[in-house]
Amino acid sequence: MWLSQVAELSQLSVEQKNNILYGEIDDTGVNGDVILLLGSKPPFCPERAQKAAELYHQGRAPYIMPSGGVTWQLGSGEVMSEAHYMKRLLLELGVPEKAILLENEARTTKENLIYGVLQINRELQLKNVKTILIATSAQHMRRSMALTKWLLPRTVTACPCPAYTDLDRPDAWYTDAEIRQRGETNLRLLKGLVDDGLVDDISFT
């Protein structure tokens, strides 16, 4: 079945939703020139930052670019953009400041990629960048990777590096109301991109 053929997402089984959300997002272990760390609401930034820091400490890429210009009030009362908050988390996780390249304008996933590529070009020059590792939540990865095919230059390869958590996994996401809602939102947005013809259709069983 193709996602474009689905009239209502509510008609799909949990297994089918799993196949759409978590299909084709495995980390293949390749190295990259930079890690593009996609922004989110503050509660979900730590899991993404943790993944990016792990990739850096494993020597998978020499730079991390946190991306996200939406500002949020943190639990401490501070007001901070997604990118600056994730930079703080990365520093706490032992990533040196010289390895962090900030993108502080994007307000959506689409803009994470557009502004991220622009900032990567400014910092590193795209002619020197062949592979970008995409670090984001596992549920968010399928949509993010679909967008990379549309928005990234043809000379650049994007590789998924999903941040799995105890609940953001194929066998657990539907058991938690908040994570289930996140998953349903990602499904809806992904289908919208497919229906609008902006990304490739997705085959699933």
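[next item in queue]
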Amino acid sequence: MSGERLQLEDIENRMRQDCKFGIIIGGTGLIGGALVYYFNNKVKNVEILAPNSKRLNLRSLDDTRLYFKQYRPCFIINTAIAAINSDAQLAYEINYLGAMNLAEIAIEYNIPYIHISSAATMPMGENLSEADRLQLSAELPNYSKSKLMAEMSLEHLAKTRGLDYTAVRLAIVYGKHDHKIQGFHRLLFSVADQAMPILLTRKGAMHSYSNAQKISPFVRYVLENRQEFTGQTYNFADPSPVDLGQLILTIRAYMNLKTPRALYLPYTLAKMGKHVISWLVSKLNRIGIEARMPGELLFLESFYESQTLAVDKLLGSSYEDADPQVTVFSALPQLIEYYLTRWEHFNLITSFNKEFFGTKGELDDFARNPEKLLDEMHQEKDSSLNK
């Protein structure tokens, strides 16, 4: 045991003093992008490599080994995930096989491996601890099944081969710079686009939320304190769970919208609607129109049941949250401003009041009177030429 403690102390010292490279997998996603930005701007003397799928094929252990031979990384952070509605092959190869290949590399190089996991590995219920996990079965959705298998195999490798890993299990993630409309941001988009006439949940359904910006400093702390965190799984979420119906109505209030109404759609009707959408999608695909059902509908049942994560283990650790007062409610104004502006730029919002974005000056002319703007720009250029 003393030899194992000394080995972990060596790793901690190398993290603090001699670390040159760190590799983040999935660096273009919400979590991975936040980690890349944080380490590049907040951590000195560490160069972050964030290879995309063209540079690093996670599905092949040989390709993964070949990539890692070019560098001497002092840690691996895996945030890569297949989409929640991916087929069995993609979910298995990215979420499970890719995670195992990275774990194999971490063992070979004797370096820490931080694995970003998901509450999709947990059952529904309230105050769920790290020990509360789904029973592995063929009937589980591909996403949940693959993420659950990854957690179980990492535990096995830690016990049998000394893998130095930490699993960070996230709830529903919120934050800026998510280029995909998924999870919490799908909810935000549905309200903004007025595509939710009434509440797609039940009264009192509670959920936990994870702040994307808070994950990075926690991961750094975990890397620098391996003795405390090695071989552990931590639920990482805001301490206070949120009533989903209240959250939706708060978003509506910030946007000054009339919908969704404060009426709760019964689960039986919601399930029937899901089947109708699935049938319609299949018919559209048959006639050559590409269509996909939103992946979140795979977890429709979770909208109507509570899932809250206990964070006692996290709060009992030596890590301290620098901004404990920040919650999904306090972050809403900035999130709404950021995403509405982004979606409006890409013409994704079809029914929202465009006055909300407050176009002024040249932008207002560009939107309403492009001929006037063009004439003014030409006059300005001509006058500067004559000077």
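[queue empty]
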